[in-house]
Amino acid sequence: MKISVVTLGCKVNQCESDGIVKLLVDLGHEVSQSIEYADMYIINTCAVTSEAEKKSRQMITRVRKCNPIAKIYVCGCASQNNAEQFVDRGVEFVSGNALKTRLTRDFGLSGVDVAQLPLEYEDDFPLSSVRTRDYVKIQDGCDNFCTYCIVPYLRGRSRSRDISSILDDISTSTALEIVLTGIDISSYSTAGGGLEVLARALRGCTKRLRLGSLEVRVISESLLQALSEIDGFCPHFHLSLQSGSDSVLKRMNRHYTSREYIDKVNMIRRYFPNCAITTDVIVGFPLETDSEAEETVRLIEQVGFSDIHIFVYSPRPGTVAYDMPTVDTRVVEERRSRLAGIKSKLIADFCRANFTPLEVLIEEQKDGYFVGYSTNYVRVYTTSPVELGKVYRLTPTELIFDGVLAVEEK
């Protein structure tokens, strides 16, 4: 049977979809992750914003055009949030975030069955080396309950994977780079300890190793020391910000101040002077004033991020912030546009600071270039004769697009 596994949303969803693909291939099916003709579609949905949920619904229509009589299974956050929104769209079976791997074993499922979210980590997704870098999931769920975020309600409480299982995946991976991912990896915790203990267990890892998004609270001298001792650690920290205003952070239920955030950035840079520090920012959070928005701008410029991911606030029913007064859409767009300009300058500044030989993993071909990332997450374009999935030492010559144009050292 030809099966297409279509993924929306975060890297955790992608990691889980990759595992589903591996299970299906092992069972002898022809599997793709493209929107193309197939006998069956498994759609792994997202609900982090209202737009993401809308795209999840629209995906049903898109795959139906590829094969009007195909069987369609839906899983993930959007169906966990509201399974009924998929029922009248000709879908065979709707489930949620639990028991996703059962979709590979039983093709006779029908109707709606959103299983209860587990209290323990579901360690049933096999590693699937289908990319130049592998995503290894180490944790699921979230206990933070930020006032804007629906994810804790859709993914359940935080639960972590055994270190031995994580190490098994890393040792068997054929990829040159590993990304440790989860819904909130800062909450990683086993009987032996937290993220710091996992970092010590990875000390001898020679593959390029990255961490997913981190929270301010987990950054400590001991964690940074442990990370600095990992042979293949890539110095890139995605440190979630959301706002640079203390009053907005309090309304968001984010448990740190702008001063604490800056202190942790400075701590990171003492251990990793040339690291990339990227972040997320929410524009137009309810009641955000001009002065609060300006505080965010000042902090972003003070930190000098290498990149920022900008999100416009999306009201999600069921969250605390949903009933808060919203900001005028024109004002929100003005703030978003301003941050987009700052983002472009920050990327250029970071790239200029890295006009030095870079170790680059080539990941794709795009518009006549080979494209990849350096260890410290500079996006590199080259026309040198390189191969996908290999690491090259490339020297930047000029800024281009959202990164640098580089040539291979001879």
Brief summary of the model shown:
With 410 residues, the chain is an alpha/beta fold. Among the domains are: 2-112, Rossmann fold (3-Layer(aba) Sandwich); 358-408, Nucleic acid-binding proteins (OB fold (Dihydrolipoamide Acetyltransferase, E2P)).
Task: Describe the structure in your own words.
- It is globular, with a radius of gyration of 22 Å.
- The protein is 32% helix and 25% strand.
- It has 410 residues and is an alpha/beta fold.
- Strand 14 (276-283), helix 11 and strand 15 form a beta-alpha-beta unit.
- It starts with a strand and ends with a strand.
- The model has no long low-confidence stretch (mean pLDDT 96).
- The strands form five sheets. The protein has a six-stranded parallel sheet, sandwiched between helices. Strands 16-17-18-20-19 form a five-stranded mixed beta barrel.
- Among the domains are: 2-112, Response regulator (Rossmann fold); 358-408, Beta Barrel (OB fold (Dihydrolipoamide Acetyltransferase, E2P)), CATH 2.40.50.
- It has twelve helices and 20 strands.
- It has helices at 11-26, 50-66, 77-81, 84-87, 151-155, 163-172, 195-201, 221-228, 246-252, 258-271, 290-303, 329-352; strands spanning 2-7, 30-32, 40-45, 71-76, 93-94, 111-112, 133-140, 159-160, 177-182, 189-190, 193-194, 208-211, 236-238, 276-283, 307-312, 358-366, 369-374, 379-382, 391-400, 403-408.
